[in-house]
């Protein structure tokens, strides 16, 4: 049986690590490439290496992200937009030629269901956000990420899960005791990779359906 090559950025914690574990357990034909550091300085070398070893890329999971509560507006916006928008766009551009070599290609952007125009206009901020300061940059970056598209694209909302995104202290990783198990996010990503959510292609998907844009 032909193998499926999957690259996951930000695979060292949170939803990325959970997705890596779920996919690796699901099938021996899923070959997972864990990208645990920024690909930006070496994107072309990474693409060349993947092409040399595997010949193509079947699934790209753009998961790496960062939050910032820096009191300086420029600093926190620069970090969030560069990491959460520019980074995924550059990674997608560098690896798109390899995705186009796949007969069944998937491109996933791990975003946030909280950051859609409809939901943002009709709901109060989630309780966990009250523990964070200066969320504006992160919110804007995820709204911008939701607009990226191409190939067989899914924007995925993994939910509020344990992650290094908010910091490395136990308090931050656990979302002040409110973050869920990232395994659920891994299961959601696996369902997309397995084609179970193909009816929702082009949508912002979550475990129980899709969010309106």
From TrEMBL:
GO terms for molecular function: oxidoreductase activity. Pfam families: adh_short_C2 (PF13561). GO terms for biological process: secondary metabolic process. Coiled coil: none annotated. GO terms for cellular component: cytoplasm. Belongs to the short-chain dehydrogenases/reductases (SDR) family. This is NAD(P)-binding protein.
């Amino acid at each position: 049986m032909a193998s499926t090559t999957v690259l996951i950025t930000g695979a060292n914690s949170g939803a990325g690590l959970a997705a890596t574990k779920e996919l690796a357990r699901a099938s021996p034909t899923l070959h997972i490439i864990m990208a645990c550091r920024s690909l930006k300085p070496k994107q072309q070398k990474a693409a060349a290496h993947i092409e040399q070893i595997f010949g193509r890329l079947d699934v790209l999971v753009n998961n790496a992200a960062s939050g910032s509560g820096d009191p300086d507006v420029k600093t926190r916006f620069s970090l969030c937009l560069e990491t959460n928008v520019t980074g995924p766009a550059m990674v997608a551009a560098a690896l798109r030629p390899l995705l186009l070599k796949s007969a069944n290609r998937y491109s996933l952007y791990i975003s946030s269901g909280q950051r859609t125009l409809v939901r943002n206009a009709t709901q109060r901020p989630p309780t966990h956000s009250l523990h964070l300061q200066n969320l504006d940059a992160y919110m804007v970056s995820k709204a911008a990420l939701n607009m990226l598209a191409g190939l067989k694209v899914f924007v995925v909302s993994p939910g509020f899960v344990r992650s290094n995104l908010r910091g490395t202290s136990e308090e931050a990783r656990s979302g002040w005791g409110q973050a869920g198990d990232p395994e659920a996010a891994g299961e959601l990503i696996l369902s997309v990779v397995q084609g179970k959510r193909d009816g929702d292609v082009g949508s912002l998907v979550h475990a129980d359906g899709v969010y309106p844009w």
